[in-house]
Every structure is written in C-alpha cells, then in structure tokens.
Amino acid sequence: MTSRQDELVFVPLGGVGEIGMNAALYGIGPEKSRKWIMVDLGMGFAGEEGLPGIELMFPDLTFIEERKQDLLGIFITHAHEDHIGAVSELWSKLKAPVYATRFAKQLLETRRLSEPGAPKVVLKQITPGQRLTLGPFEIEFVPVSHSIPESNAVAIRTEHGLVLHTGDWKLDDTPVAGDTTSPEAFRALGDEGILALVCDSTNVVREGRSPSESEVAATLKRLIEEAPHRVAVTTFASNVARIRAVAEAAQACGRQVLAVGRAMDRVIDVAKECGYLDGVPDILPGDSFSHLPREKVVCLLTGSQGEARAAMARVSREDHPAVSLTAGDRVIFSSRAIPGNERDVGAIINDLIEMGVEVITDRTELVHVSGHPRRDEMVSMYEWTRPKAAIPVHGEALHLDEHARFARAQGVETVVKARNGSLIRLAPGKPEVIEHVRAGRLYKDANVLIDAKDRAIPERRKLAQAGVVSVAIAIDARGTVLGTPAVDIMGLPNRGRGGEALIDTVAETVSRTLAGLSPGKRRDSEAVENAVDRAIRSAMNDVWGKKPACHVQVVEV
Hints:
The N and C termini lie far apart (about 70 Å). The chain is built from 16 helices and 28 strands. The model has no long low-confidence stretch (mean pLDDT about 95). The strands form five sheets. It has an eight-stranded mixed sheet with strand order 8-7-6-3-2-1-22-23. It has a seven-stranded mixed sheet with strand order 9-10-11-12-13-20-21. It has a six-stranded parallel sheet with strand order 16-15-17-14-18-19, with helices on both faces. The chain is of the alpha/beta class. The longest helix has 19 residues, at about 525-545.
C-alpha cells in the first residue's frame, strides 16, 4: 500500500461541479499533520427557487477549520466575488493571512472589509512574478487575461513537483485593461515540468476562441455614437476594461459618463488608484444626471444580473431617485445572464421595452465577451504546459466531463474527475481520488449563516407551496374547551374547489375534532395538537388538494 506519510494532496471545497464558491486546498506532509494553503475563498448567488429568503451561499469549510492551525495562507487569484466574496464572512473561522495583488486587496478593503462588523483580516500584498515561500510551498502568481484586472494563475512548487492552478483565464492580446496571458511564461512552466494542471472548465463546450475586449469596445463606441438620445450601459461592476471602453467611447462622441450604483463607484475608485483609468475623463456621480442634455448622457449602471435593488432594476421600475429613461433612449446589456438569473434580467428588459426604450443585448451585437477560454485557447494552454495530470475545475458536471475528454485528447496521461470534497493525492504515485471529506454549502439568511441542513429552508419551501394554518385553543384542567378556537390561514386560497370558504372549513374541522375527543384526551395538549393537525391537513387535502403546514397551540387554563 502507498504510504500516507508524505503526500501532496488537492482538496476542492467549492467551485467543482458548480460555478461559484471557489475554494481549493493544497496540502503537503503526513496525513495527521499536513501543512495547507488555500486558493480563493468565494461565494455564490443563490438564484434558486428552492432557497426562499436566501441570496448568498458560501462553501462549508469544516474540513480546514478543524486543521486551521496548519493553514499557512489564503491566496486570491482575482477579485471576482466567486473567488473573493467569502473572505469577510468566513475568514474568522480560519484566521490565516490573505495574499492578494494590489487591486484585489484594495477592492476587498473597500467593498467588504469596510462594512460595520467586518473582521480585521490580515491582508498581505503579493506581486506577480514574486516567489513566496510558506512552509513546504513556494507560490508564484502568473498574470493571465480575464474580465478583471490583475488576474493570476498560481504556480505551486513543492518537493513533489509543480502544480499549476490556472484560476479564471482567457487569451486576449488586446484586453483594454489588465494583463495578457503570456505564452512564454506558460511554456517556461511547461519546460520546468508540471505535475498537475488544475484548469478552468467554464467554456470548454464552446468551439473556437473568445473575442477580445477591444472588439467589444469598438461595438460600444459605434452603438453610443449612433444613439440619438441617452445611452445606459449595464455591466459587471468589476469589469474595468468595459468601464474604460464606455468612458473612451463617450469621450469620442462628445458625451459625459456617469456611474450609478455603489459597487460601480467602489470599483472605479480602486481602478483609478491602481492606474487602470489613467487618461479617462472624470466619471461623474449619478446625481449629475438631471443637469446634462439628453443627447450628452452615457450612464454606467450596476444590476446587469437583474438584482432587484441595483440601479438598472430601479430605473426599469421608474423608482430610481436620480436616473430615469424615456422612450427613444438606448440601454445596452454589456453582459450575459448567469444561469439562474435569466428570469430577473428578462423582467427588466421587458419593463424597459414597455417604456419604449431600445434594448441591445449580446444576442444581436458583440457587446459582451466571456473571460473564460474556449477550446482553441485551451489547446494552447495544454500545448504550452504539457501536464502529466489534469484536474478539471470551475464548472458544472457537463463542463467537467467534457473537459476530462478534452484533456485526454490532448495526450494527458492522467485525468482525475474531482467533485467538492474529493481528496486527491497528486504525489507520490499516480494522481487519484483517495478519500472524500466533508464539503457542502452554507447559506446567508439575513445576518445569520446557516447550514444547508437547517430546518428553515425545507420549512420555507413547504410554506411557499401550501401556506400555513394557525389555530389557538384554550382548554381547562377538566378538558373543557373554553370559548371558540382562534383560526387563521395564510397562503391558502379563499375558497376550495366546491366554493366553500377555507377558513370556515378549518374552523368546522377544529370544532368537530375537539368534540370527538373525550375530556381525558383533551387534557393531553400534545394529543389535541396532533389530532387537530391531522384533521386540518386531511380536510384541506379534500377540498383544496394540498396539505398546508399547521401550527396548533393549546393553552392550558
């Protein structure tokens, strides 16, 4: 049997079998006393009808929490929420230093860590190309092109070999803002010898190569130039290249750019500090809107994913305090709806069209490009790096399965199919899954973090589907019912299929059930509650076809 005393292992706790909540662990050493590093600590957006009241999701870190004394550091590949968004929420469970580039570090500080009650995260700045030694690991950030500045792959050097964790990347020779992905840098890593490539799978099902940000910039310039009246552009607030492209297009057309939305304001401030908006004219705040002629306005708005409280949704509902659109104005969705957000985005588009506003999306114009590689780009990455093993990550089951076939077609010796919680031994020996550890989701419920197994979620689903009946009954020590039971229904229709009022049916069912119980039975509160509960659910099923949740309370007098 292979010794478990000195191993290099990989354990994804999020971001594998799903898109979002990225959190990956690398460990070295004996099974009981490994040293660990984490790559990324992101969140996901619920966007699921089966999670009523839940907006944000986070990876379950129980596995590494139990080993936090051996966690040497958390390395952030880039500042997108699915890679950085859980830091403020979960860092206190780990308390390891967080390493990030200047842009990611400042965005973390302004967006999350400036909020009331945020933890005092130990943030350390790391520079691409710099080699940092932490215990048995040597870490190097390798710049890549992506839809946010300062995105990086992570080269992890160990005594067992080199692992390359790509993070999110693409090939773009003209990215408008941020780095290109250097063939020379990745060839050099391939020449060094790569034990395992842990690679982005998001666009593996798409042929060809992703268009460049500069092509989107050219389209935006044309669409703004052709617009007779106001132009509003909604995009991911973090896409600095898109912000710069809109600002430059507006300047060329003699228009003024306004930013509307707090997330957009924060990103613009950080981008300015880091030099990514040098040479761009000042971007005005949203309250300047009313002072500018209609044909001179270009608005950058948050809310490209249909978020109800974001600027774009409020404008579409005509309840934004500073910005309004009228018939003949043009809105450009410089984005693509993340799976699960299509309905909310579609509702906004429909509202805008009803207002007479022209809406342009990527269905008709090149107003958005992905930040992830298509197949031709991935061919290049595999040709440059020539890994001995490949582990597809950052994708749903479809993407991971297709990436596995793709990697084999590139001649990779070993392809390991991972899921969240897979403990993969990378060395010594052939890389393989050797164990499964605890992994899952945590939900942000208002200000409380709850486990995925918390009773609140299934109970809310039930309430959403069938409503609730509340009954209060007063019974004295002799088992006599005092007065008339109080009955209320919520979430049920007013009348059943026969036209009967459901609240009357509930009241009659309660009275009949109580009358059928002996005084001795009525002195047992639990027996009364159970009998009334069963009777109501049965009666509602007969006249309505559903069984509501029941809350029966017996007050002993």
